[in-house]
Amino acid sequence: MENLQLIIPELFISIMIMFLLIFGVFKKNSSQLVYNLTTLSLVAALALIINLNTQIQSSLFNNSYNIDNLSKFMKILLILSGIFVMLSSSKYIQISKISKIEYPILILCSILGMMVMISSNDLIVFYMGLELQSLALYVLASFNRDNLLSTESGLKYFVLSALSSGLLLYGCSLIYGFSETTNFNQIMANTKEVEYGLTFGIVFILVGLAFKISAVPFHMWAPDVYQGSPTSVTVFFALLPKIAALTVFIRFLYIPFYELVDQWQMIIIFLSIASMVFGAVAAIGQKNLKRLIAYSSISHMGYALAGLSTGATQGVQSSITYITIYLVMNLAFFSCLFMLKRNDKYYENIDDLSGLSKNHPLLSLSLLVVLFSLAGIPPLAGFFAKFYIFVAVINEEMYFLAIVGLLATVIAAFYYLRIIKIIYFDPEKEKFETKHNLGLKFTLVASTFFILAYFIYPSGIVDIISKINIS
Amino acid sequence: MNFPILSSLILLPTIGALFIFFVRSSNSQYQSSKYVALFITSANFFLSLYLWIVFDKSIFDFQFVEEREWISGFVNYKVGVDGISILFILLTTFITPICVITVNATIKNRLKDFLIAILILETFMIGVFCSLDLVVFYLFFEAGLIPMFLIIGIWGGERRVYSAFKFFLYTLLGSVLMLVAIISIYWITGTTDVIKLYELGIDAKYQNLLWLAFFSSFAVKTPMWPVHTWLPDAHVEAPTAGSVLLAAILLKMAGYGFIRFSLGLFPDASLYFVPLVYTLSLIAIIYTSLVALMQEDMKKLIAYSSVAHMGFVTLGIFTMTQQGIEGSIFQMISHGLVSAALFLCVGVVYDRLHTRLINRYGGLVSIMPKYAIVFMVFTLGALGLPGTSGFIGEFLVLMGAFKKNILVATIASLGVILGAAYMLWLYKRIIFGKLINEDVKKMVDLKRFEIVTLWLLVLPIIFFGFYPEPLINSIEVSVANMIDMNDFDKINKLALGK
Asked: Which of B254, B256, B262, B304 is nearest to B284 (CA)?
């Protein structure tokens, strides 16, 4: 008999999805209620996950579903970001007239898919989770269906994502063909020597995964989709799929193919360097803040991959630290975006920020902190994120990667500084509204405080993450 | 000593900044936030003065050391002072209140934000001089960029955006390589604790690359030729208080870094690269002095003279002799006082006439006699007249240089002459000459707060010019230890024997 209590959070979310769907259909005008219930059920799921005992690593369903420290930590990150995204974007959804009951339910669906991805220890289970989250995301991207850009972004995301899923599935089939199994642990046992077919399989799967975290050269969709989608969906895109995809990256590279590190290391290094440099250079010319943050997140994913490319546990841990701090920074950035509202219209161009500091000193101060942190200037949290990555990278004597990465931070600093320049040095414009809902304010204050105060006690997160070991 | 005096020094300005930030102010309270800042910075000065008095100058060990676990099992927060760093802390805490006083005339808008930036910057500057861990040092060293960027960008002149970006990106580019080097040191030796690294030493085969990585950062910050171009821009556009802090303290971080890290951690590589540093220093001394002669903008002239003076500093440090290093430290302190004073002087006339072009002035001696007197003292201090602190520094540096390489010393001495030329010419064109400009006639002499700030700087310049003992006394043992520890003397003798 399977030990089902280990997957109670997943079961709970599935039940909530069905319940909310029925509830929303039968009760008229319940979109706001469903939205709040979704947030509450995420909180409940968070409590359930924290409650799980992962002292002993356990697996279910013929060892195809793993519950360990890694999955627990990543799920907590996932659900926490989900809660904060819901809190910060509730007002936006009402004003942009996309407040429908399907919206929160789709978010729940994709979160469920991501949880499955995070725990998967089998190619088929992993693919199932991936498709569940992707299908929900396609719809979310085009949720503002009367808007041309939103529809375009949804379609673009669907076509390109389907292509990458196809490649990924082909890679899975190749690996199955050469190792006679889909289970990660057994793949490791069955593949002792390097075979071409296997390498091809790895490459195809890496392409599919790189697409999901928008690493160069599979990043084409990101800027358009970030810009076109409603901002509440963009923040979702920027945070949650990255957590899930990174976890799969870790599991996939470090469990079945750890022995073949020579085969995939070069690929990851290439993806990493290309993303860091391209993300930094391409963001310089951007005028739209959402587009800019898309390029910035491409570059940040490059750093996270740099940690993975080391092939050492320390590197993986540094990547996890990186993604944690990245989430907080992006959450703070998007909270600021949600505050740029005037007469029920949201502003998202860089020029709209002009002279912001004169009318909104506190908002600009948080933006200042967030941007310097994204640029990786000490003593803010973003610096420590990069610092851990480079500690791991240099430990493996990959000096080239480290130096390229650091030079890319200098290039990237330029465009972050440009935004700061517009906020602080340029002449002021009209005032924005100053009334915001509590959830949004709380998100911004909490995340900014985290970024500012991280240096006081940097070992807190590192200690938790150092308990994660991949085997 | 259980009281964490160094951490208090570091934290006090930040607490003041938080206080100013959280106290909501109407327009009338603007003034009161200035008094808070003045109070905090003065308190910090007296605290550091107390530190200097109780500091035991007869031993070379680091004193007042505090150590706390920070990033567990990796980096400890460790601060401490020796005879060298305590002087720089004193300089920092002395210059900052003077900057706070000057905001009266120069900062017209967003005074509160400006004071917060200055206070936060003071925290980082003091942190740089006391940190005894490479990562902590890097953290403070880099963090100083943020407030300085804002000071130049928000309160600067016309081309402030360009200058602020140039300042930020140049310095950042220089220091990223240092971060790689610091992490490499951690993996090579297993620690980033400076005291332990002094004992352990670093394998000679790694030293050259590591030295270059540190050098790239310090050379930009010093600034040495050819990466000095950000400095004139930043100085010209920064508000007076910003220029003062930049010239007096931020540049000294690099000189301090050379002594503490380049010499201390990589003695072999330092010896290896002596010709490189000599060459760059000499070019800086001669070339930028010539450039300074050609300037029509007062602030630019003083900025180029800073590059030349810092050339003396790097030259002195890499003579690796007792006199040379002591002279460099003395020169840095003296230059900190003199250049701060000169920028304040420029600020005084700029506030009245709103131009920095030298040819718009002339004949000030008859309208502003008090100004003419203090400006003269600073001019003489800058060109190194005996009896001012500038002389002692340059003299000791040249003495150290003559010991090692006569040719280098001779060329450097030419720089002294050029220095006298551009400073005296500047003085002549501004203070003497005919009163031709109508606006100049309407200028009023020094106001009370300007007299206070400028005379506060005159006193130490003259005092240390006649009686350098207190400063020399404080650095002597530490410098001697540095030379002993790395066997520079023995190597020097070997080199002479050849």
From this structure: B304
Q: What is the pTM of this model?
A: 0.92
At residue A274, the 3 state secondary structure works out as helix
CA-atom Rg of chain B in angstroms = 22
For the ranges A26-30, B272-276, B326-330, the lowest mean pLDDT is seen at A26-30
Smallest Cα distance from B24 to chain A, Å: 12
Residue pair B331/B312 in contact by the 8 Å Cβ criterion: yes
| B230 touches B223 (CB < 8 A) | yes
Q: Which parts of chain A have pLDDT scores under 50?
A: none
Residues 6+ apart with CB under 8 A from B247: B235, B302, B303, B306, B335, B336, B339, B340, B343
Comparing B15 with B483, the larger pLDDT belongs to: B15
Q: Which amino acid is at A440?
A: L
Task: Decide if B142 touches A, using CB distance below 8 A.
Answer: yes
ipTM above 0.85 for this complex: yes
CB B237 within 8 A of CB B153: no
Using the beta-carbon criterion (under 8 Å), do B139 and A391 form an inter-chain contact? no
Quick one: tokens of A116?
């499955």
- Report the alpha-carbon distance of residue B15 to residue B432 in Å, rounded: 46
Q: Please, what is the average pLDDT of chain B?
A: 86
Distance, CA of B417 to CA of B479 (rounded, Å): 29
Whole-angstrom distance, CA of residue B209 vs CA of residue B202: 12
Q: Residue A460 and residue A465: Cα distance in Å, rounded? A: 9
* B391-401 confidence digits (pLDDT tens): 888 899 998 88
What residue in B sits closest to A406 (Cα-Cα)? Answer: B176
Burial-class residue B157 by CB neighbours within 10 Å (0-12, 13-18, 19+): middle
* Cβ–Cβ below 8 Å for A421 and B164: yes
- Per-residue tokens: A387: 């610092």
Distance from CA of B15 to the nearest CA of A (A): 14
Q: How far is CA A117 from the centre of its chain?
A: 13
Q: What is the pLDDT of residue A193?
A: 75
Q: Which residue has the tokens 């490059």?
A: A302
CA distance A448 to A335: 10
Instruction: Please report which helix (H) or strand (E) contains residue B128, including its range.
Output: helix B111-130
Inter-residue contact B40 to B21 (CB < 8 Å): no
Q: Which amino acid is at B228?
A: H
Percent of all residues in chain B with a pLDDT value above 70, rounded to a whole number: 96
Q: What is the C-alpha separation between A419 and A414, in angstroms, rounded? A: 9
The one-character DSSP state at B388 is: B
- For residue A162, CA distances in Å to A108, A135, A166, A208, A297 come to 21, 10, 6, 10, 22
Residue B320 to residue B484: CA distance in whole angstroms? 11
Distances, alpha carbon B464 to alpha carbons A149, A315, A392, B255, B392, in Å: 70, 53, 49, 20, 8
Tell me the mean pLDDT in the region B307-336: 90
* Chain B partners within 8 Å of A379 (Cβ): 139, 143
Please tell me the distance in Å from A410's CA to the nearest CA on chain B: 6
A421 vs B69: CB contact, 8 Å cut-off? no
8-state DSSP, A431 = P
Residue A438, classified by CB atoms within 10 Å of its CB into exposed (0-12), middle (13-18) or buried (19+), is exposed
Counting one residue from chain A and one from chain B, the pairs whose CB atoms sit within 8 A come to 81
Nearest CA in chain B to A402: B180
Residue-wise pLDDT tens digits, B21-69: 887 665 555 678 888 888 999 999 999 999 888 888 888 888 888 888 8
Model pLDDT, residue B498: 41
CB contact under 8 A, A395 and B176: no
Amino acid at B68: R
Q: What one-letter code names the amino acid at A140?
A: L
State the average pLDDT over residues B210-223.
90
